[in-house]
Amino acid sequence: MARDTTPGGGRGRARQDGPATLAVVAQRAGVSPQTVSNALNSPELLAPRTLERVRRAIEELDYRPHQAARSLRSRSSRLIGYGVQPTPDGVSGPVMEHFLHAFSDSAHRAGYRILLFAAPGDADDETDTYAELLRERSVDAFVLSNTHRGDRRPDWLRKRGIPFVAFGRPWSNREAGDWVDVDGAHGTAAAVGHLVALGHRKIAFLGWPRGSGVGDDRGRGWREAMRRHGLSARGLRASSRDDVEAAREAVGPLLTAGVTAVVAASDTLALGCYRALRDTGRAPGRDLSVVGFDDSSAAALLTPSLTSLRQPLTEVGQVCTRLLLARIKDPQGTPEHVLLTPELIVRESTDSTAAPS
């Protein structure tokens, strides 16, 4: 029986003697070759039903446009640069990996790929690599992470008209380009509210040394929430680098000061608190409530499981893609800033049995 070759005919993927061409896709979808080209390069020009029909034909025929030809026509590589920075040891390290996966998936759906490159430990030194990649026309845009006060990268890119989006506020210049971030202050305030509802009144904060934009933001949320609830925060803050053993040492004075709960700036710091409690024969959850931040994969596996704040990383990746595509399309548009809310995941470390007697 002859194979159905009418547009849209047959089921599944059509048999080809070689790779499918744009003309074959157009025939299959019942549209012109220009319409197929628009579906690939300017999908906003097509009616939704037409776009869906073309995309279905592309999928059925396993059509792969020649990237080099597309780049020559559009002077676009369809690549987004992302510098992978060294991360310290700790259970919260995978957070950036989860973000990168979410962003890569979202960008892929929009027809872009992520070009990873090794970034130096100092984020500001990334600009040398940016310049090299731009000279080679290897990328169309960049996505930044690990933003900090005094970060030079946003201004460097903005002054050169290079599209970019940042996961994280620039802190020292909030007008410097498009960014999406997670509201850490809202998260730690929610943690304080949860602990107050359980009966806690002496709630400590275990954070990073002052000067970190992210860490200071999370500390601010704790401090302001304590004030709103009529509680004193005096003498209830300790600082540590994001390291389990360092946190174990740093939290000691808080545990001897009679606190009944600790809000930590990361799950790594929370784990240090777990170890310090066990050093004194006490148990997290039973004797003192602990809240972490980031809801790392370790949080649910700890004994007892750790209450933690979960960042909406899938949504972060999707918003980053949306902002970046808008910037590529309209380089002179008004920068957009999006602040997302983390979710408090309540587990055994702040169970009602851990409330003060």
Automatic annotation (TrEMBL):
Q: Which InterPro entries match?
A: HTH_LacI (IPR000843), LacI/GalR-like_sensor (IPR046335), Lambda_DNA-bd_dom_sf (IPR010982), Peripla_BP_I (IPR028082)
Q: According to the UniProt record, where is the region Disordered?
A: 1-21
Its keywords, alphabetically, are: DNA-binding, Transcription, Transcription regulation
- This protein is called LacI family DNA-binding transcriptional regulator
**Would you indicate the residue range of the signal peptide?**
none
Q: Which SUPFAM superfamilies match?
A: lambda repressor-like DNA-binding domains, Periplasmic binding protein-like I
Gene Ontology molecular function: DNA binding
The UniProt record lists the keyword 4Fe-4S = no
Q: HTH lacI-type domain spans which residues?
A: 20-74
Instruction: Please give the Gene3D superfamilies that the UniProt record associates with this protein.
Output: 3.40.50.2300, lambda repressor-like DNA-binding domains (1.10.260.40)
**PANTHER family according to UniProt:** HTH-TYPE TRANSCRIPTIONAL REGULATOR GALS, LACI-RELATED TRANSCRIPTIONAL REPRESSOR
Pfam families according to UniProt: LacI, Peripla_BP_3
